[in-house]
Write a structure and sequence with these properties.
This protein is α+β, with helices and mostly antiparallel strands. It has helices at 2-17, 19-22, 29-40, 53-73, 77-80, 84-109, 114-123, 129-138, 147-157, 159-173, 180-206, 214-234, 239-251, 258-283, 290-316, 323-331, 337-349, 357-382; strands at residues 405-411, 433-439, 442-444, 457-463, 472-477, 498-505, 508-510, 523-528. 54% of the residues lie in helices and 9% in strands. Helix 1 crosses helix 14 (258-283) and helix 6 (84-109) crosses helix 15 (290-316). The longest helix has 27 residues, at 180-206.
Length: 537
């Protein structure tokens, strides 16, 4: 256990240190985590022998719960409404048709037994939400015609169908007598009902008064997520479908302070993705991959160039999409962690296969992420599908909150230039609104004719600044004996592109001017802006 914790801490630390570097390289960052796992593995630098499929299956299955829930929680149904029908068709019929097409190819082109061909097709039939989300967000790929929302909803919701197909195929290969329609119906019905009911009850719970702190709300939602997966799974339904639909319901419910919940699950999901891809890389034995490299390459090429485009073209035809949309949806069908996790389940079931199924699927996923993922931004540009006027972040629920408006207070002292003037006479920007005036202990909801007086406290509303890449805040405490002590702010030479925007002195907070004298113990809040890159002003 100690060594496992040491390894986990080292990997997470490496990932944090590589974060800025990973944003600049053209390959998906998730590929780097797989490479780290291989580097730590038995054919890598550290030569750690690790082949515990059962442990990896349990950890990755648990991590998929977080990923599936957050995929639903972050789905903005209002933005995705125009493409919900297309996404639903692709995540159900599309998955089944893709599995059938790949199975036919494996059976006729690779001469695999029919049952094994169906298993391979079922395992790799879904697209990977983690990979798609990662690439769209990292490269800020806002796509035309709500295509980014289409890809996000489809990739976030099609794993349950692939899981059901894999379970049915494994049952048939094991010689069990199962009613396929009845099994699928039970999986879908129980998963959907449990997920939606738990989501609806949890939304009411989050609005209740007994959850009066952010910590209790977060822990409550964590418990709800686990319950939404476990309850349908115990009853014989599809737990992944349940937790995904629960996330969709909660993500689109009117719940206050949702942004803080989003931030928590965003971090949790990122850690889950790192754990999954690292463990999958650690589990694989690279020396065994050449035996499955050729069939993996053939399956991946058929899946990418034939099966996925054919399925997307046929199923999306009734919606009359443009060729560019069909092309980008076809190319963006990345395979990922879920496929490998389902392959591990197949390995643990003990079914006999011609090729090592884990290694085969691992190679397919590796090729898909490295080739399709790396070229996705270029393909989007070549097809003319990038919408430069849109923001891909707004397809996620944390951007639909009312909390993108911040409130600012401004006290009018004697001699302030606004005193004695009506609000309509002030040259305020269109995005800045005086929402309330506090005067002599009372409140005024102002209009354009409200005349401001000395002593008024104005409450202004403005949009929250979200571009954290170009502006950051940090605190600096002035120690006794510092060269800044007893100096006016105008005399302080701040290094780089920094500005003191706030001073905390004891229990008081002040907005400084150039004449403000800095005292020992003051906490300066600095706004920092990075130096512009070459070619930028």
């Amino acid at each position: 256990m100690d060594r496992a914790i040491l390894l986990m801490g080292a990997v997470i630390l490496i990932c944090i240190l590589l974060h800025r570097f990973l944003e600049r390289i053209p390959v998906p960052s998730l590929l780097i985590f797989i490479a780290l796992g291989i580097c730590f593995g038995e054919n890598g630098l550290l030569r750690i022998v690790f082949n515990d499929y059962a442990f990896v299956s349990q950890v990755c299955s648990a991590s998929l719960i977080f990923i599936m829930f957050y995929g639903g929680f972050g789905t903005n149904l209002q933005t995705a409404r125009p493409v919900l029908a297309q996404a639903a068709v692709l995540s159900t019929l599309g998955v089944a048709a893709t599995a059938g097409a790949v199975a036919a190819f494996c059976h006729w082109a690779l001469a695999l037994p029919l049952a094994e061909s169906l298993l391979v097709g079922s395992v790799i039939s879904s697209t990977d939400a983690a990979s798609v989300f990662n690439i769209l967000r990292t490269h800020k790929l806002a796509l035309k015609n709500h295509t980014d929302s289409l890809l996000e909803v489809e990739s976030g919701s099609n794993d349950p169908m692939s899981y059901m197909l894999t379970s049915v195929t494994l049952a048939l290969m094991a010689g069990q007598e199962v009613s396929v329609p009845l099994l699928l119906a039970r999986q879908i019905l129980l998963g959907a009902v449990c997920g939606l009911v738990i989501g609806a009850l949890a939304a009411r719970g989050l609005r209740a008064s007994f959850l009066d702190s952010q910590q209790s709300r977060t822990v409550f939602l964590l418990a709800v997520m686990l319950l939404a997966y476990a309850l349908p799974a115990v009853l014989g339904g599809n737990g992944y479908l349940g937790v995904y639909l629960c996330g969709v319901w909660l993500g689109n419910a009117k719940v206050s302070q949702k942004r803080y919940l989003v931030h928590f699950f965003d971090v949790l999901t990122d850690v889950s993705q790192v754990i999954i891809f690292f463990l999958l890389g650690l589990l694989v034995t690279p020396a065994q991959l050449p035996a499955v490299l050729l069939p993996a390459l053939l399956i991946m090429a058929f899946l990418t160039l034939v099966a996925r485009p054919m399925v997307c073209g046929v199923l999306l035809a009734p919606f009359r999409p443009g060729w560019g949309q069909v092309g980008i949806v076809s190319w963006a069908g990345l395979r990922g962690a879920a496929s490998i996790v389902f392959a591990i389940s197949a390995v643990l079931s003990g079914v006999d296969t011609t090729y090592d199924l884990y290694n085969l699927v691992f190679c397919i996923v590796l090729l898909s992420i490295s080739i399709q993922g790396s070229l996705l931004p270029r393909v989007a540009r070549r097809l003319g599908m990038i919408d430069k006027s849109a923001d891909v972040a707004k397809t996620f629920n944390d951007y639909q909150e009312e909390s993108d408006v911040s409130f600012i207070k401004l006290h009018l002292g004697a001699g302030h230039p606004w005193c004695g003037r009506a609000l309509r006479q002030l040259a305020l920007p269109a995005d800045l609104l005086v929402a309330m005036v506090v005067r002599q202990g009372g409140t005024i909801v102002p209009d354009g004719d409200t005349v401001l007086q000395a002593g008024d406290l104005l409450v202004l509303a403005a949009r929250t600044f979200e571009d954290r890449e170009r502006l950051a805040l940090r605190e600096l405490t002035v120690e006794r004996g510092s060269r800044w002590e007893n100096a006016s702010l105008s005399a302080v030479d701040l290094p780089g592109r920094r500005l003191v925007i706030l001073i905390q002195r004891g229990a008081n907070t002040m907005i400084p001017t150039g004449r403000t004298v800095i005292r020992a113990g003051d906490v300066l809040v600095l706004a920092e802006s990075p130096a512009p890159e070459k070619g930028q002003p």
